[in-house]
Amino acid sequence: MAGEKDDIIAHLEELAHLTMLDEGNPQSFRVRAYENAVHGLAAHGDEIARMSKAQLVAIDGVGKSTADKIRELLDTGKIAKLEALRAKFPPSVVELSRLPGMGPKTLARLRVELDVESIADLRRAIAGKEIRALKGFGAKTEEKLAHAIERLGLTGKDRRAPIADALPIARRIVAALSELPQAERVQYCGSLRRFRETIGDIDIVVAATEPAPIMAAFVALPVVTEVLASGPTKTSVITHDGIQIDLRVVAPESFGAAVMYFTGSKAHNIKLRQRAIDRGWTLNEYALAHADSEEVIVSDTEEAIYAALDLAWIPPPMREDTGEVERAAEGTLPALPTLDGLRGDLHVHTTLSGDGRSPIEDIVAAAHERGYRYLAITDHGEDLAINGVSRAQLSAQKQELQALSERYPAMTLLHGCELNIGPDGGLDYDLDFRLGLDWCVAAVHSHFDLDPATQTKRIIKAMHDPAVHVIGHLSGRQIGRRPGIELDIDAVLEAAAETGTAIEINSALARLDASAEVLRRAHDLGVLFLIDTDAHHVSELDRMQWGVQQAARGWVPAERVLNTWTKKKFLSWVRARRAR
DNA sequence: GCCGTTTTCGGCCCGACTGTTTTCAGTCG
């Protein structure tokens, strides 16, 4: 059953947090050990719930003690040490610990000296000006905590923004800062550059010899509502929608090291720094340098630093320490798809769909401008009540598309449809009509809350339909807004491999479906993929770049992505599917 | 608590900013 791994990880994360509070030190080695164990476990699937102690200890970062705790959880449903810590740190205290600025030391002193055990207690202490009276505390600290309570829920330590919200903000800020004459280079980094689904805060690195004007322009941006901290090299602000942005300004010669450092992930960086240490060097946000003489080896570009560490350059979406450093050392990183290497878009809507906003001739012209060699028009099937298209409308569209084919002879235009997968796996129209279409995407648009067995069955049934080429947005999720359907993902992916049905990598930032985790598993099973935009407007054809990032996060090699194939090879695959 | 081709003990990434301090502790990433 899905979720056992998540349950184990949630317990270990809680253990790490409470241990941090207990030991009063965020750098506690025990806390880091728990975090490392979580990281090691995350690379595995639910099989960890069936592992023996010896098998668990073999996992990177998991030792004897943590393995015992995992077995204890699986066998008894509890971890004694965690139960003891929960008694010591009740939920109201844990809530306090989530306030920005409330570290373990501050929390412990407030509890002991002022009996603060909850947010309500803290409010009282602040109202009574009790905190500023403590030794080592002052009015500023008291005001900061008061402010943190006000913002509770808006900017807490755990709040994460969907990438669809964070990325446009980051791009606008990068564009604004790039216009400053002092800014030589500007790059967003962090989890956004690694293309995670949700973003804790936005990290931006600027190369400039003169930081002051950059900082001044940054805090003056209209999107900024509050300045949390501002020094000569680092400024942190909050935007009006509660997203924190950290700006770092570094000397131009340090830009590569800084971008690398702030892109992370933390685990990836630690592995790189270890590699540097092994060679008698140090790696920080300024340079790769000799440890003793501090003489700089390289610092200006990421590529040069990876090369100096005997590593191939690693694409940011892969930098999660899930084996990419080892593969880069061996020179066996997968050759990922590139934006330039994509030869067609196979999931695109026109105004014929109720929700489409660009006419077919504009879409075709825009695809031609991008140099595509093939394009599939895939408006919604008739079962989608509001946006669907009748047989007569589809037939008329076919004529229109044929006329357009003559205007763009170098580009093959496929007349297709985005079919709805019904709750029982049924599809729009009838089989003969479907087979009359050149190309069929099948996707879920309704009935998101069926049980996993039914969902799995409905997807697999659609995969067996002779007309279907690809399953669109596999889970139907919208990141941060709607969870996807629950599936027995291994069964679905095995069926995809068996039937030769492609799995879509949907480039819409709100979807990015299938998820990176699913893509990686799918690849291991031999599944084929397509990177599509699901565009409803010509401007959305530009989303393809995000699908490329998502493919990288899923370690999907280019040769497995159908729309990297030449027209001849791709079209013969399209036809072969119909002949099966 | 974890780990090992210098090690089974003694290390474990490290710098920026703030607030309260006269040199540093706490927090954060």
Structural class: alpha/beta
**CATH homolog superfamily of the largest domain:** Metal-dependent hydrolases
Q: From the 3D coordinates, which CATH architecture of the largest domain would you assign?
A: Alpha-Beta Barrel
- The structural domain count equals 5
Q: Span between N and C termini?
A: 34 Å
Strand order of the largest sheet: 11-12-13-14-15-16-17
Largest sheet: 7 strands, parallel
DSSP strand count? 17
Structural summary, described in words:
With 580 residues, the protein is of the alpha/beta class. 43% of the residues lie in helices and 14% in strands. It has 5 domains: 4-88, DNA polymerase beta, N-terminal domain-like (DNA polymerase, domain 1), CATH 1.10.150; 91-150, DNA polymerase, domain 1 (Orthogonal Bundle), CATH 1.10.150; 161-250, Beta Polymerase, domain 2; 263-330, DNA polymerase, thumb domain (Beta Polymerase, domain 3, 2-Layer Sandwich), CATH 3.30.210.10; 344-579, TIM Barrel. A hairpin with a 5-residue loop joins strand 9 (288-290) and strand 10 (296-298). The model has no long low-confidence stretch (mean pLDDT 91). The structure holds one DNA strand of 29 nucleotides.
Short description:
With about 575 residues, the protein is α/β, with parallel strands linked by helices. The protein contains 24 helices and 17 strands.
Please describe the topology of this protein.
Elements: H1 4-23, H2 29-42, H3 53-57, H4 64-76, H5 80-88, H6 91-97, H7 104-114, H8 119-127, H9 139-150, E1 161-162, H10 163-178, E2 185-188, H11 190-193, E3 198-199, E4 201-207, H12 211-219, E5 224-230, E6 234-239, E7 244-250, H13 255-263, H14 266-278, E8 281-283, E9 288-290, E10 296-298, H15 302-308, H16 324-330, E11 344-348, H17 360-369, E12 374-380, H18 391-407, E13 412-420, H19 431-435, E14 439-443, H20 452-463, E15 470-471, H21 489-499, E16 502-506, H22 516-524, E17 529-532, H23 544-553, H24 567-579
Parallel strand pairs: 4-7, 11-12, 12-13, 13-14, 14-15, 15-16, 16-17
Antiparallel strand pairs: 1-3, 2-4, 5-6, 6-7, 8-9, 9-10
Helix pairs in contact: 1-2, 1-5, 1-7, 8-9, 13-15, 20-21, 22-23
The protein binds one DNA strand of 29 nucleotides through residues 26-34, 36-37, 61-66, 100-106, 136-138, 140-141, 144, 157, 190, 200-201, 203, 228-234, 236, 246, 248, 262, 264, 266, 269-270, 273-274, 277, 282-286.
